Amino acid sequence: MNLRDLEYVVALAEHRNFGRAADACFVSQPTLSTQVHKLEAELGVTLFERGTRETFPTDVGRDVIARARAVLVEVASIREIARSSQNPAAATIRLGIFPTLGPYLLPHVIPSLHRELPDLELLLVEEKTEELLRRLRDGRLDAVIVATPIVDDGLHGDPLFTEDFVLATPSDHPLAGRGEPVSVAALADEHVLLLEEGHCLREQALSVCHIVGAVEREGFRATSLETLRQMVAAGVAVTLLPALAVHAPVSNPDGVALVPFAEPAPHREISMFWRETSPFHAFLPRLAEAFRRVPADIVTPPHTRPASA
Amino acid sequence: MNLRDLEYVVALAEHRNFGRAADACFVSQPTLSTQVHKLEAELGVTLFERGTRETFPTDVGRDVIARARAVLVEVASIREIARSSQNPAAATIRLGIFPTLGPYLLPHVIPSLHRELPDLELLLVEEKTEELLRRLRDGRLDAVIVATPIVDDGLHGDPLFTEDFVLATPSDHPLAGRGEPVSVAALADEHVLLLEEGHCLREQALSVCHIVGAVEREGFRATSLETLRQMVAAGVAVTLLPALAVHAPVSNPDGVALVPFAEPAPHREISMFWRETSPFHAFLPRLAEAFRRVPADIVTPPHTRPASA
DNA sequence: TAAAAATACTCCATAGGTATTTTAT
DNA sequence: ATAAAATACCTATGGAGTATTTTTA
């Protein structure tokens, strides 16, 4: 058994086809085929059921491949430990961020980040929270930025900031008023437009609705925050938008009125998470620090009670 | 990098000497030397400081070696998963047990265990609890039997039984009486003989002493339970012995009187622990079950309140 | 001057390649 | 009939050996 063999079985489990797995490993199909065979012979078990159309792992195969993945993650971290001992700041970090935050947070952070850590390479991935955490746990991501609370097991979390929600209404909506803060209670009996299932913003807005007695606007579920915004502009209903999504450099379409909530405003807590065993464990607090550099008039720094106006 | 290289650096970190590490890996010194060099070149870091008298890991080396160990544990578990898929009961289990229990528990369990699981190979290790847990966590043991509570992180525990303590006194001691149960409170103001530091039996007996106001007999600390027993026989002082240590097939020396405690008797909880990620995770409950087969007149099965007489 | 590690060099096991055959739908 | 996997066979990288030199306490 050697590390290359483990890459082969992991690739084969992934691609379910010897030829494609071989391509992914940059070897020929016979090479991958014989090596997988040899590993099966060495272990004395069949790891894959070969079908002509598709190849898939046996029960033992699944267990073995899960361990093989763990081995490869450890090996990658050995390489990273060695590299980072030369220059910790020259890391390549695979960072995941969820869709209703990423596009609005990154413009505030990336420029200064690039200035402070010029050798840092950030590979950004935008996925829903559930997928981000899955990828973080199995080593496909090095860190994620998500809204707390999360069910964490073996993950280390570092709070970044608290982001208030604001009310977005069609301009001619009664609640639009003249932009003065409005109480959350004013939402009672409103029909609120929400994102589709799986977005954490949907759950966050829903929990606000449950508290004050608002209900979801039936029949429409937006697939992105931008769609949501456009639907409000089209006069369909009101919605909750996170603060970063309504501040410069983001511009708001005509027909949408933004109404801040009176304190205590509904909000969400944003944190960065990584595996305690990550090879970047010592470096990631510096990255988190950079992500805290969002103007305090947009978000609230962690461990700070929102000041009542 | 390949798995053999990782074995080399782990062995070298262990033996702190190229020649001895090479012997341990069954290769020649130049082979190990060149392979370690190549790995250092590949990683671009020095993993070991070479001295003529001794060789030891650099800071990066220590981190790398820790990960290398983790890799090798995972690889061992891949082999074990494959093997156990053929015959789960033919496992070779490295089982640790602490010194004041092992010699008295095993005779009650091994014979029937051997009958029920004839293909099972048990490698028994007797060490103090702290060392057992260290070895369990780093993969040198597959399971341990220790007294709860323990600080567990990622360990799975399965309660085995509750073992009462009995009072052992010199035969001419006032508390010896005629063997009738004696209250724990009777220990107040007694000087109790204890084991040396590091034995969990010492801590267990000490906590009983603290409750009733007994103190440690100064000047003597026994290094084993058998020594303790002999010192009681010699009339030095009283002590607490665990139930299994005073029942057949163990025989007690002349000059020692055994006095049971009245309910509720002081006792200790014995459990088996293993890593949640152990390749034996599915099998070990069967082993635990076997270790519960101790006559109920000696110990109390788990989740059973001791019946008041 | 000894003990330990590094170097020189040789060898061969095996990972990997190409060409081809076998298998299953 | 066709796509996929297995087999045959060849090549060459690199892991492991022995013999020897270099290093340092």
Question: Would you write up a description of this structure?
Answer:
The structure is a homodimer of 309-residue chains. With 309 residues, chain A is an alpha/beta fold. Chain A is built from nine helices and eleven strands. In chain A, the strands form three sheets. In chain A, strands 3, 4, 5, 6, 9, 10 and 11 form a seven-stranded mixed beta sheet that branches. A two-stranded antiparallel ribbon of chain A has the order 1-2. In chain A, helix 1 (3-15) crosses helix 4 and helix 2 packs across helix 3. The first copy, chain A, is elongated, with a radius of gyration of 24 Å. The interface between A and B is medium-sized, with 25 and 25 residues. Chain A binds a DNA duplex (25 and 25 nucleotides) through residues 2, 4, 17-19, 27-31, 33-35, 37-38, 50-53, 55.
Quick tags:
homodimer; 309 residues; alpha/beta; Arc Repressor Mutant, subunit A; D-Maltodextrin-Binding Protein, domain 2; 3 domains; seven-stranded mixed β-sheet; 9 helices; disordered C terminus; DNA-binding
Tell me the layout of helices and strands:
The structure is a homodimer of 309-residue chains.
Chain A: H1 3-15, H2 18-24, H3 29-43, E1 48-50, E2 55-57, H4 59-86, E3 92-97, H5 102-116, E4 121-126, H6 129-137, E5 143-148, E6 155-170, E7 191-195, H7 200-212, E8 215-222, H8 225-233, E9 239-242, E10 256-260, E11 267-275, H9 284-291
Parallel strand pairs in A: 3-4, 3-5, 7-8
Antiparallel strand pairs in A: 1-2, 5-11, 6-9, 6-10, 6-11
The first copy, chain A, binds a DNA duplex (25 and 25 nucleotides) through residues 2, 4, 17-19, 27-31, 33-35, 37-38, 50-53, 55.
